[in-house]
Amino acid sequence: MSVIQLETEDRLEYNFVPNNAGFVQFRVRAANDAHIALTTQAAECDPMYEIFIGGWGNSKSIIRKNRTKPDVAEVPTPGILNPNEFRGFWIRWQNGTISVGRENEVPPFLSWNDYEPVNIEYVGVCTGWGASGSWVIEPPRGGPGGFGGAPPSNYTQPRSNFSSVCWAPSRGGQVPPRAFAGGEDNGEPLYVIRAQFNGALIPGKLVPSHGTGYVAWGGNENAVPEYEVLCDFPGQWIATSGGNIPPNALTAGQSEEGEPLYIGRVVHDGALTVGKVQQSHGVCYIPYGGQELSFPDYEVLVQ
């Protein structure tokens, strides 16, 4: 099936197309409130996810489930839509994680982990709150339930080193099967995680005996009771320094400003501790002893 083009009125009524591929890419031209529904059938129903891009007067974007408040994820996105030009986006749903990103950008600007995942079969789009919209929806890769056929030449997905790895939602110190151990502290394995914190998606460490994960941010070691664990990952560690990031480094998150974050580790105080690498800062930050510590020499995780 070819690219789908739709016009949506200012009516908040979804137009549904089948898609169980786990990914959709689209372009939309609207002044505000581009709404996307991920559902089990071609109708508004429970369970259902909704993503509002450019809501509240084109000032923020949110994810909600089953049309209930409060919204489960929210991020400021002033001016993200434009009534005079198409803006491209992608949405991915995998292992209970809903991620929303801009076209040709790897890290999502909005994401949320659902510990009771929904089996998505349809994608719906609509506009409202004073806005109409023009949509161009790309077909997902062929397969059961998808549109079938080869994708068009201008179809792009987030880079494989971000989208193809497995991030399993977890909480409370629980370790999913085949979790990737990236460090060690006093004989206890430390697992590679990432978590939402203060508008950023930050790589960090899971210490199972503490019942929580930790991420470095704002000068502190911050506990995160809910997180995603890297699983089934065949990668390796490469020694580097400063802002020298190998091209095959695993992109695992983004700063609150949208800069990609990578997974790094260092030996400190006898522990091999996992943290985040922010290229523009030229260091690896680790959460340790209640603090955010920085190191110019570190190892970075690649695949």
TrEMBL record:
<dbReference type="InterPro" id="IPR006616">
    <property type="entry name" value="DM9_repeat"/>
</dbReference>
<dbReference type="Pfam" id="PF12248">
    <property type="entry name" value="Methyltransf_FA"/>
</dbReference>
<protein>
    <recommendedName>
        <fullName>Farnesoic acid O-methyl transferase domain-containing protein</fullName>
    </recommendedName>
</protein>
<feature type="domain" description="Farnesoic acid O-methyl transferase">
    <location>
        <begin position="12"/>
        <end position="139"/>
    </location>
</feature>
<dbReference type="InterPro" id="IPR022041">
    <property type="entry name" value="Methyltransf_FA"/>
</dbReference>
<dbReference type="Pfam" id="PF11901">
    <property type="entry name" value="DM9"/>
</dbReference>
